[in-house]
Write a structure and sequence with these properties.
Layout: H1 29-32, E1 37-41, E2 44-47, E3 52-55, H2 58-61, H3 70-81, H4 94-108, E4 116-118, H5 124-139, E5 144-147, H6 156-160, H7 165-169, E6 178-181, H8 193-202, E7 213-216, E8 219-220, E9 226-227, H9 230-242, E10 246-250, E11 274-277, E12 290-293, H10 313-327, H11 331-353, E13 360-364, E14 367-371, H12 375-387, E15 390-391, E16 393-395, E17 401-404, H13 412-430
Parallel strand pairs: 3-15, 5-6, 5-7, 7-10, 10-11
Antiparallel strand pairs: 1-2, 2-3, 4-12, 8-9, 11-12, 13-14, 14-17, 16-17
Helix pairs in contact: 3-10, 4-10, 11-13, 12-13
Length: about 425
């Protein structure tokens, strides 16, 4: 047996947590928050020494209903106590049937959607890979259009339609068969960036291969909380339809209520051909992903796309309960929008207090961001917040956006307490 001596962590100067001797350098969040967490309830997480932190991160959007939600926890504990099947691949089970029926009657049918459900694997990248593969199978084309600053996952297919150069560089091979186009307002209003895509499609001399699909986020989370206008999304949907291009909507981080409605595209009134869901779909932070496809696109051969952990039944059980509890009416949707306006008001106040720093408030619902001039300033803000009991991350191509994804169930008091910490952080870093 080889004995490993703890190595220094470049981010902390030592190894106070006892993890870095064994864990890979690929770690990221633990560098920004170098404490050992132990417990979590609602919007509060606790370090092993008892220190409390308000959570404006929510598992990167995987915990929309908070940590250890008591309603969902009871369902999970009862499920396990009754010796229900846990690992099921794609076998028929009672938990699977309950989820499919609940999802259809409470989510799909009220929104006029008739999509079929694919269980592609346990995570968001699995959902994206299935969507890309199916779009190419249906159309017989290879090329996919993605957008600047997009993020769709870390597997090779998902990376090919992701914009971040650092993440793309980790692939180690050429990432092909994808063409980036400018996202809404990429040129800050100086150029009508949507017309650029349209011109490329319609010009026989553009060199653009006929695309199988377009993949898009309504709000780019990792890209910097860039929110597309509803009219831009409608124009994109119309352009896809006119050219026989499938529209893939990546709702992995922005779905399940993050922007208000269950799906982030509801406000735009569009119907994507394929929808990717993961993160908060299980309701409890357990691995689960869906790829929703219009019925006429469901041309898979049996087993043509699969995965060992595509049928994690405890996640079906908590997902069903989360949908029943939070989406049987519009109560949560209204609360999300109201809380989002509170954040927007706070961020607008920060912008007005610091006119010399070219700040910008961004986002929709409870996906909010405040863009600073550079990543160094944003990092100092999030570090101050952590030191004062708030977990919040950065996003954007240079980490220049302070990004808020609190649990949707956070109380108004908790939300305002966290925003007060952020106000102090911004004023301290930028100068009162």
């Amino acid at each position: 047996m080889t004995t490993l001596t703890p190595q220094s962590d470049a981010s902390t100067g030592d190894d106070p947590t006892g993890f870095t001797a064994l864990e890979s350098e690929v770690r990221s969040y633990s560098r920004a928050w170098p404490v050992v967490f132990d417990r979590a309830v609602g919007a509060t997480v606790y370090a092993e020494d008892g220190t409390e932190y308000l959570d404006f991160f929510a598992g990167a959007g995987s915990l929309n209903y908070g940590h250890n939600n008591p309603i969902l926890k009871k369902v999970l504990l009862d499920f396990l106590a009754d010796d229900r099947m846990v690992h099921t691949l794609d076998m028929f089970t009672t938990a699977r049937r309950e989820f499919l029926q609940t999802f259809r009657t409470t989510i799909l049918e009220p929104r006029g959607l008739d999509h079929k459900v694919v269980f592609p694997g346990p995570g968001g990248a699995n959902s994206v890979e299935a969507a890309l593969k199916l779009a190419r199978k249906v159309t017989g084309r290879e090329s996919v259009i993605n957008f600047t600053n997009a993020f769709h996952g870390m597997t090779l297919g998902a990376l090919s339609v992701t914009g971040n150069s650092m993440k793309r560089g980790g692939a180690g091979i050429p990432l092909v068969h994808a063409t980036p186009m400018p996202y809404d307002d990429y040129f800050n209003g100086d150029v009508d960036d949507f017309q650029y895509f349209q011109r490329m499609l319609e010009d026989g001399g553009s060199g653009l291969n006929e695309p199988a699909a377009v993949i898009v986020e309504t709000v780019q989370g990792e890209g910097g909380i860039n929110a597309a206008r509803a009219e831009w999304l409608r124009g994109l949907a119309e352009l896809c339809k006119a050219h026989g291009i499938l529209l893939i909507l990546d709702d992995i981080q922005m779905g399940c209520g993050r922007t208000g409605g269950f799906f982030s595209f509801e406000e735009a009134g569009i119907v994507p051909d394929i929808i990717c869901l993961s993160k908060s779909i299980s309701g409890y932070g357990m691995p689960m992903a869906l790829t929703l496809v219009r019925p006429e696109l469901d041309v898979w051969e049996p087993g043509e796309h699969n995965g060992t952990f595509r049928g994690f039944a405890p996640a079906f059980a908590t997902a069903s309960e989360a949908i029943r509890t939070y989406w049987s009416d519009d109560t949560l949707e209204k609360e999300i929008k109201a809380k989002g306006l509170i954040v927007e008001s706070h961020f607008n106040s920060v912008v007005s207090r610091h006119p010399d720093h070219e700040l910008m408030a961004k986002g929709r619902g409870l996906a909010r961001g405040l863009q600073l001039p550079d990543g160094e300033l944003a990092g100092r803000v999030t570090q101050y917040a952590f030191e004062h009991g708030l977990l919040v991350e950065t996003s954007g191509p240079d980490g220049e956006v302070v990004k808020l994804l609190p649990p949707l169930t956070i109380t108004e008091d908790e939300l305002r307490r966290g925003l007060a910490i952020l106000d102090e952080a911004f004023d301290t870093v930028l100068g009162s």
